[in-house]
Amino acid sequence: KGAIQVEGVSKIYSNGVVGLDNINLSIKPGEFVVVIGLSGAGKSTLLRALNRLHDVTAGTIKIDGDDITKASGKKLRNMRRNVAMIFQNYNLVKRSTVAKNVLSGRVGYYSTWRSAFGLFNKDDQNRAAKSLERVNLLDKYYTRARDLSGGQQQRVGIARALMQEPAVFLADEPVSGLDPKTTKLVMDDLKRLNDEDGLTVVANLHSVDLAMAYATRIVGLKAGKLVYDKPIGEVQEED
Ligand code: ADP
Ligand code: ADP
């Protein structure tokens, strides 16, 4: 599980800006794909399309054979659970505890009123503790998110995303603004999910060096077009 098939995908924003221009990309389960490109190249637009945070203008995106661009209702919800995402700005609720933030990765499994009151069951509380163990932050369970460092907040974001029990893990500029040591902790967490759980990882990064250190494959975007796509073993210095 965790295959992604992008066919002829274009995204034109309502103001006429072309975010993506006819992207074709086939990703196998367990790959660690790093997408590189300048700011504005379309990296974020691509990731947001993969879990349907927004709609595309043309083309199809199949996750394990099912087209997520056309799914709706319960089927779409189930597909989106399978494609977790972390963000550049972490997107945590800063005044809430780490535990509550992590448990919020499970809200889709609850009725609205239960999640509104934070009435998570014992299984999910255990699941939250396990997720936090994966990123070595179990000791922060009752800490408020705003009292964590940026790197710790991103790792809580990873723990929250794991609550979905996804097959695909999307990371949109997960380490921008973090120092090298913290960057390594976050990237190592992603690598571990890729190695140990076999999750397919697609990460947008600015740094070619980081891409070389972690990716199994590097994809390059430029002005919404896919201009580069090579497995790590074939990447040349002069590329
Ligand atoms: P969509 O076509 O996906 O519905 P919209 O054009 O409606 O997207 O824009 C969604 C949001 O992004 C709006 O709040 C808009 O103001 C904001 N936005 C507009 N232009 C840009 C831009 N160049 N970069 C980032 N965000 C933008
Ligand atoms: P990257 O992630 O590579 O920096 P983006 O995917 O954010 O690039 O942006 C690709 C292009 O789409 C840019 O020209 C950007 O300004 C534009 N863009 C991004 N989001 C929106 C939006 N919501 N509305 C309009 N234009 C957008």
Automatic annotation (TrEMBL):
GO terms for molecular function: ABC-type phosphonate transporter activity; ATP binding; ATP hydrolysis activity. Residues 4-239 form the ABC transporter domain. The keyword Manganese does not apply. It comes from the Bacteria. InterPro entries: AAA+_ATPase, ABC_transporter-like_ATP-bd, ABC_transporter-like_CS, ABC_transpr_PhnC, MetN_ABC_transporter-like, P-loop_NTPase. GO terms for cellular component: membrane. Keywords: ATP-binding, Cell membrane, Membrane, Nucleotide-binding, Phosphonate transport, Translocase, Transport. Pfam families: ABC_tran. NCBIfam families: ABC_phnC. This is Phosphonates import ATP-binding protein PhnC.
